Fold this protein.
Amino acid sequence: MILVLESKISQKQKDKIKNRLSDEGCIIREIMDAGRNLIGIIGKPEKSLDELKQMDGVADAVPIKTSHKLVSREFKSEDTRVKIGNVVVGGDRIVIVAGPCAVESHDQAMSIAKEVKKYGAVLFRGGAYKPRSSPYSFQGLEEEGLKILADVREKTGLGVVTEITSPSQADLMMKYVDVVQVGARNMQNFELLKCVGRMEKPVVLKRGLASTIQEWLMSAEYIMAGGNNNVILCERGIRTFEPYTRNTLDLSAIPVLKKLTHLPIIIDPSHATGIREKVSPMARAAVAAGADALMIEVHNNPDKALSDGPQSLYPEQFGQLVRDIYVIAPVVGKQLDFDYLKKSEIINNIKDENSKTAAFIGEYGAYSHKASLGYFGEEITPCPMKTFKDIFQAVQTGICQYGVIPLENSLSGSIHENFDLLQEYDLKIIGEITIRVKHALIAHENVLKKDIKKILAPPPAFSQCKNYLDQYPEIELVPVKATSSAVRQVKDSNDKHTAAIGSTMAAGIFKMNILQESIEDNPRNYTRFAIIAKEIKGHKKVDKTSIIFSTGNKPGALFEVMKVFSEHKINLVKLESRPMLGKPWEYMFYADLEADIKAPELAPAMEKLIEKSENFRIIGRY
Ligand code: PEP
Ligand code: MN
């Protein structure tokens, strides 16, 4: 049962309710969900549902109908995010866990860890206690293996995941690792589940070899009932009649689970397929199906691996897979972030908590809000602003550490105002993120499409949905500042004849109904955002440089600059000309180069660029 508490409930009233229920033998869990304060009650309280509703400070009481309670969406509608050091599983950023099946030696673990980290893994896996089918197979290095894992974390900064096979290992696990894994063979080892429920470590709970989703969720319930909310569900293939692959990867479990539970999902295509060449296709499909994370077995010498060599990827194959995931993730609204760990480190080093903010345009639910979450995760608080200039101002004055500004859209083109502001302010581009823009037509509950007389949206959204809107010439199009404001205005107006164009995220935030999804003309609708800050902090590999320059007003002046790029084989990926402020018919150029212009080998190029242009300025290296 769920008690929805009144927002003005006092702590005293809350304690009274909680104490009474736990005296009656109920399990009590208090959470915040979608802005509501809830108490979950597991067990049979003495009071009836109606009596509970009458208690002081209680707004409502709702039964949970499913047999899984704490893990259910009914109890908690928002996705759970499991935090492992600086890494968050669940949310907009795809998490990659990789490493060998088993820790075999210090050298083996360390060299694989370095490789997988280089290619984009943010957590390292490796078994120290191996549950093998045969008692004669390698059983793992046990405590020695855990010590090696701890050293891998120390040297690489990667959090480590390992399997716990018995409650007697709990103290060692607490000491050495960041995440414990309950293996497929132990999914219904209830003493082990109770044990990890008591441990203060995130848990990866693998699906049993022949377990239903319902049984799996009940096992997760054991862990949560024990007091541990940090559970990640791992689908690793189930036994079917099909012998070609080691198991059958049940990818349909992803959408099923997304509906039933708030817990994040990790997919292990290695144990699912058992065959190296089948791992990457299934990993790509898993991300397309909505997985939050992947767990991949990687070995530097699979032929000699002490376990699961045939399903282990070579490090380079793993690198290729991660690159593919990087491309696929935005299609389903997620991101793979190659700078994940570096970025988190920089963010964690920001001393002033209040300035851990990123200014974005519009209101919550705006695509810029999504871009901020995709780039920073939730460590940085998105901070809504009314205008682009306000964003620049907030960053310049230090009110916000970062700004998130859209620069161009694949359908509607450049956002010129931001190029002008980049010229005007002395701020730096420290990164970029591209997100897919999937527009929905959003209105109040029970409104039909034929009722709509007016649609609110910003002009670029109208132009991105032109073909769709052209079908309804009688509908009035009302321009507003941002998609998120459009959704909020429709919500506030309570007008059943007005709809808004916006993101499904905005529809969720404002609790509005989606009349139609994906109304943009072309599904390849992407917006590229730049992340701006006062200065570039930390050292990271630079792939791109953004520059601003002007040229003298003489024949061939721009050509002279372009020639430098050509001579030094620098790929120009964007060139935008903007009128110079206060100088009619004179232009400033903004360019993105696929190179680190400050790299020593490009020093001659840089020298020539300064010579051939006027007002040459580097505004970002990222
Ligand atoms: C493993 O992850 O190495 C493992 C033994 O997995 P599973 O429990 O899925 O077989
Ligand atoms: Mn394995």
